[in-house]
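User: Second chain of the day. Same drill as before.
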Amino acid sequence: MIRKIYSYYSNLPVRFNKIVWASLLISLFFILKAYTNHLINDYNYSFSWLLVTLKISISYLLWIILTPLAYSLTKVLQSLVRFKLYKVFQFLLGCFILAIVHQLIASRLDDLINFANSGYLKSFLGHNSMVVLVIGSFSSFIELLVIIAVFLAFDYQKKFIVNQKALIASQLNALRMQLQPHFLFNTLHSIAAMIDIDTKNAQKMLSKLGMLLRHILEYDAEQMVTVKDELNFIKDYLDLEQVRYKDRVTITYNISQEALHLKIPNMIFQPLVENAVKYGIIPTVNNGEIKINIELNHNDIMQENALTLEISNTFNNKNQIKPEGTGTGLLNIKNRLQQFYGNRFWFKADFKTPELYNAKIVLPIIE
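Assistant: Same format as last time:
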């Protein structure tokens, strides 16, 4: 039981000790405010530090117990990517119920403190108690919204840091795989061999190499890029690879113009293209093929219009064994997608036939 309660608090985006300190500081602020108000209005009764401290502290420290419930409402709000009436109703109803529960407990404890001090206990269903409950519930509702806003901010910061780390790891991996001496040597060697034979095409390939490097440097801090920017990077990469393996590979693009302005995570598609070259083209003697398909369509799994990014490559089943691989690249893609979209995505990479490998990502539409 204790372990289960601990798990509820350990899953909060803010550490428990920070929540306690924040509640104490807020309580102190409102205690001093109450004292200042007492001095300004010059009431004809003495200020009771004990009673005021108990009443105010109970109200704010009570939120510490209720924070797991407040965070569950935050999760409901986070799942509201698009406006859905039942989700909004679920969130607001949860907020109202939790605010009333908070005020019921706080007001009843306040009554017990007054009873201990004066010997008089208010009727639970009395008129004054109901007025206090209604007005206090509104205040509790506002406080709850502030708590939820704080949780949202901390969650966003946490996810941003995780996404930033994953993006940096992806970029470093791209640099390591694409800019290693072996890659540069072979690419530059291919371009050098073309200079005397086809000077114009050699210049074009040097330009492509420069564009590839520039793209990595320009978009190194971007979390999201347009499909067009990601596609330009992929084309530059494949153009360079085609210089090396021009007799082995045919590359086909099927791109929906409506998809070009949509946003996707930076360099999310590049590892799949790299795998297509590494496992599908390099071991192939001839007639290798890569097909890239990017389009908008209705996805039955997600039950909404979605962006589909798909790449397939041929596989020489006769001359090679299916690559086992570590699966690290595919796992990194899945983890990054989960950080960006939660569970609102679909990703699969597997052999469709013994001679055809296919990788497919389906994402929610982000303008």
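The longest helix spans residues 127-178.

User: Great, on to the next one.
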